[in-house]
Amino acid sequence: MMARNDLFVYAKEELEPDSYAAFVEYSIQLSERVGAKVSAITPPSLSLPSQHHSQAEVLAWQFLTNGGGSVWEAVRLVASMLRFEQPRQRMMQSDAQASSFHLGICARGALVGVCKDTLTHRNVCRLLCFYVQHLCTEHRFTSISINRNYLAPAHRDLQNGPEDNLIVSLSLHDDGGLWVESPSGTVYHEVEGRMIRGEVASLQSHALLFSANKCWHAGLPWQTFDRYTLVAYTVRNWAHLREPARNLLTELGFMLPKVPVTHTGSENTSHTASYAAFCRRTPLGLMASSSSMN
Prior knowledge:
By secondary structure, the protein is α+β, with helices and mostly antiparallel strands. It has 2 domains: 1-35; 88-282, Sandwich (Jelly Rolls). Helices cover 25% and strands 22% of the residues. It is built from 6 helices and 13 strands. The strands form 3 sheets. It has a 7-stranded antiparallel β-sheet, with helices on one face. It has a 4-stranded antiparallel β-sheet with strand order 7-8-6-10, with no helix packed on it. Strands 5-11 form a two-stranded antiparallel sheet. Helix 3 runs antiparallel to helix 4, helix 3 (55-66) crosses helix 5 (122-135) and helix 4 crosses helix 5 (122-135). It is globular and about 60 Å long. It starts with a helix and ends in a 13-residue tail after the last strand.
């Protein structure tokens, strides 16, 4: 399902001027006859960090200050304004089309810290964390990545902890799903010279939970528009972060695992019976209230 603004952009590109004018007139008449009940409550906004805040942070602050609206459109618009950087993963650094933006905890081996953009994008953190919690209330995560035009080859995220990843598309495009390893799958993918069973999951209209640390997975090609995905995950060794920093992330909305686990890299990597599962459908309408964010 497209958001209203996306429909207008697409219609203007595809329709003749007369047909587009008729489409606009019809949409106006439709909006006057079909009402919508607004009853959304967002988490409270946080003060802007400085005079040099980004457009994305200002926009997130405005959405949270207004106190309601479409979480789908708010997150998508804020994500499109982020200052993306070159991918951190080596496998993606040669892809000139790919870029990413990271918030929350970052880890390199035993070194654990807070991503540099977290403190300057506190309202962005709160909005994105609220969105993740709305998709799957029970999901625990230390970090969020927004990936743009990622066509990742088959890999496992060995820097992640054993907790599941949550991934959802923030854009509208043809195809562009995710292949995830599954012993009962019917779609084969070549991994290190071997053909491995898996399943292809669409990332639109719902989020997907899967073990990125244990399961091989790969992005699939897409057409039409840029491909944006949001990934909420837990890094390995996250509990090494000092308590004041963990408290700050909790205030920003990150749902850290309740029981700290020391990830030593020696965890059992045997697969569980459940490889991937869909969770709550993407809320295309209004935001819902969340007492844990207040």
